[in-house]
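User: Structure tokens for this complex, please. No commentary.
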Amino acid sequence: MILFALLLIPFTYLMLALLIKKAGIKKRLALVFSTLNLLWAMALIPIVQFKEIIVVQMGGWSAPFGISLVADRFSVLMLLVTAFIFFLTTVYATQSVDKARRKNGHFFFTFGILMGVNGSFMAGDLFNLYVWFEVMLMSSFILVSLGGERKQLEGSIKYLILNLISSLFFVAGIGLLYGKLGSLNLADLSQKMELARANLAVLNPALILIFVGFAIKGALFPFFFWLPASYHTPPPAVTALFAGLLTKVGIYSLIRFYTLFLYYDAGFWQQVVLWMGALSMVIGVVAASSQYDFRKILSFHIISQVGYVVIALGFFTEAALTAAIFFLVHNMLSKTNAFLVAGWVHREKGTLNLKVLGDMFKKSPVWGILFFISAFSLAGLPPLSGFFGKYLVLQSGIEAGYTGVALLALFVGLFTLFSMVKIWLEVFWKKQPEDSAMEWPVNQKPAHWMLFSSLALGAAIVAMGLWAAPIAEYCEAAAQDLLNPSKYIEYVLGPS
Amino acid sequence: MDNLLSLLIALIFLAGFATPLIHKLVGKKTGLLLAIVPLTLFIVLVLELLQLPPRESALLQTSVSLLPGMDFAFRIDGLSLIFGLLISGIGTLVLLYAAFYMAKYERQAHFFTYLTLFMGAMIGLVFSDNLMVLFIFWEITSVASFFLIGFDHHVDKSRQAALQALLITGFGGLCLLFAVILTGNITGTYVISELLEQSIHLGNHPQYYLILSLVILGAITKSAQFPFHFWLPGAMQAPTPVSAYLHSATMVNAGVFLLMRIYPIMGGTMPWKYGLMITGGITMFLGAFFSMGQRDFKRILAFTTISALGTMILLIGIDTTSSLKAALVFFIVHGLYKGGLFMIAGIIDKTTGTRDIYDLHGLGRQLPLTAVVTLLALVSMAGLPPMLGFLGKELIYEAKMQLPDVAWLVLPLSVGANIMMVAISITVYYELFFRRKNKAVITLKYRERELPFYFLAGPVLLAAAGLLLGISPTFLELPVGNGLFFMGTLTESIHLSLWHGFNEVLLLSIFTVLSGISVFILRAPITRFIQKMVRWFDQWHLPTLFAQLINKYLTAAAKNTNLLQHGYHRFYLLTFFLAVIALMGLQIFRITEIDLPELAASPIKIHVALLLLISAGAVIYAVFSSSRLSAILAMGVVGYGIALLYLYYGAIDLAITQFLSETVLMVLFVMVIYYLPSFAVLSSRKSRLRDGLISLGVGTFITLVVLKAKFLNLQTPISEYFAATAYTEAHGRNIVNVILVDFRALDTMGEVTVLILAAAGVYSLFRFQIKTLKKKKQNKA
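Assistant:
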């Protein structure tokens, strides 16, 4: 029940929302349920500190026959950050998303995403993970296209089809793997791989298919196209939620998969992961700096930042996994907040084109500072969370002997800084060009809940920098568990 | 007493963050009030200087730790004291000065926030006892200076200058970060005290060259050395108080401090010497040379700063006890006169409304106090007695003359630079304060008497300090000696005096002054010549080049991005499949033996073969058919074929499901096709061939993979458990049903959710479209 509740909470909301018609009540319910979810996720932290790995066998069927929900420190951290981001984007959406969308199920589908994301972070079973991916995909596809504006539809088609390919690869891989090893439970599979050591190469095609499935979800090079094609089309509140959660689920799964399976054949996979990570890092940031749309810059930039996490995974030491987890959390917070600020700008000016915007710092220094915090955190400037993320990645890379990759990551940082400062200069500092200033009605409606969400995230980013030590300590404990798959196996399957 | 320093550093930051609040309370007096903080710090540091025994350092631990190994700890020693005194002292004066200077600006609260944070970061930088913490403060200075330089952010030039400064110093910062991590990785600690105590020197480590180049890059970008110097003249876009502070005691001097700080750890090797001497030498000469060709007072000063910093870097590179001593003394000298001169530039700007020295004249009578103070500061800059500048220059000459092998190159460069310094000092003074009859008297906006005392205090006190220390330089012996000790080069105490006796150094000085005067007399042709040179050099005008570089990068990036994110859906799909083939190919490549399945082992029955043949034929028909309807029907044949296969192998449930879904899909397809435009071939033959090949490739790989699968079945697959327990434990006869609703009920719940979401989604998408909503509204209106 401790874990299942995180599925039940969004599920209950879905059921209730089907029955209710009034937008106002839907909104209030959404706030209540997202708060519940957050509280529950918070309660998991002390539990996982005590139990180390929380395992729930669904329906009482012992592993590997039933489905296991498993949450170790890594999962719980992800669940908590997800709940936090979800809560804040929900609060934000109450003022940011137009009423027509809210009435037509905006919150319904965001809760679908929450259910999918929560499920993915807890899945102890390969097919179950696939199911949660589907839940996520379906809700996110509808959110991208909800409203049916022309550019939305164009983006959503690419989003849907390319992500369906991911599902196709994923499920094909599951089939092959099941055929070979006769199990779906992650722990069981990992154990059986140990026994199949001599024939590992035979398993690789199946693993490649699953890996590609995750890589598409995580928007890694060369599988990222769906992301920049679609992220700038839905309302900003939706993009913020996507940016915080969706790709990160792909990366989470990749890390989980790597530490349970792929590391057996490290000679092959380490190269693949390092190359893909490094290329994503570079290509993402170069593409980002060439853009002139607030959200497009940030979208391309997600690819680059995901690359950092993946190269850290490729280093594959305790310090590196610590760095990967820390960076992932930092990125979820900072990226979401950057999109929240974009949402505010969009609301004030009706556009996110850098060439047309200007003078937003004068308009509201507070929002300006919030953008500054998120952007400079993404660029890795101290003492914000991004600096410590970057530092941990670089440091672990150097320690593991990958000085070249680390140097690459270092200088990607400069281009990141450039693209962030570009937004700052154009949107916040520049005087708004008069000839291009659009007629946009001055928005009279209050935006204090939007500000509240962004302030909370901004505070979290700063706090993550100032209290980097205890957070890194937690991440280190999580990394230790990840590096010790036999512990995971023992907890899930019971002592052998 | 000791931990007072940590508290004070924290207090500066606190004051910085509280500035908007303070500004609301006291308004225009913000600067005056804020000045109390650095003043206190200054007094504490003076006490510390008097109290600290020679060659001792005090370590202040705090309980703040960012990450393991990254503890906030501060260290007071000779070196940090000298820098700290100048930073806090000049900082106090700059705040006072700014209180009046900025009085009419908008957003004063912002300005003072940035300035105070900048000050705090700089103080933190020089006192921190941890290389990583030092780096953090280093980066904060870069960010704070970005905000200060871009303060007038409606001006294009300001934003450009701020961006350039941030990118250049940010680049240096990244280099420094990497060097620090590498150092920490080798030595196991970032703590400066430990590094110094264990007298670790990295010179023999294989990564030394990498580390050293990174550190030097970090230092010379910050200290505006050639070819990175160009951000500094641009940085004049900042309000004058900022320039005064940036140039005199902070920012650019951070690079010098860094080199002095790590000198014991990685200094003194050949690459260190030549790397620094070359950059420093070039910068020293070019800076001085170009200052002569400028008209704007602040620009002139900016170039002399570049030159002065080049001198310091060069001196550190020369790497003898006397050169390091000269570098340290010269840092003090430069800080005192440059801070004063910038403030004077601001005063002149405020009173006359211009900074072009050739537009001004005869201010001597109108601004007598300013004239006197300027004279003192310029005398110091020119290196003439009795100012401290003279002592500084003498030490420099002495150090360079002792230089063993390359004195023949360094000395002329240095003398040349100093001649230009003398000349520019005289020129500036002459143009500003001497009266020319043929020009109209300059009208002033303020008279000197109308200026508040705290506006004038800065230059006056700084000039007085220069004079005082010049006359009795013994005050400096203790701090400079201590500072040198912590650079690990000095064993005996040092003596400083204005008069060194009649020796070749003095001769050189006299020669310098005389040449400087002749340059001044011949300034018209020389200035013309230099301006011509400047124009010639301007074809490589670095700020413009840099801006062009950024633009070029942007165009190239945009081009490549469009190549990659081209928007053609089919090519995205193509890329995906190709990438998978590539990965699979890599994998197959690694396995040496591919054992083909033994077909004989499982004889294929004739009706199965027939089924497969029919399905395959249907696929081929679907590909080549030119009618959508028949293609769909052919695909239906394939679907039914697969269902029959299921049936044949006894999976009745699956077969039924497949039949049903296939039928529904067919019906749906046929309904939709009705609405589609008629079929047309739009792609060229070539592209179809390519697509066909790729499809075949993917198909082949998947087939190979499946054939190769040779099911391992190491242990009994879990399905056997289901068969065994479905009835006994789950109480259901239909195993598939039991799996769906009991064993794996969670999957079913998820799939049900997917269906609900899909249904709700279809409903929402159909019912709700922004466009139709708008139309409805219009109709109503």
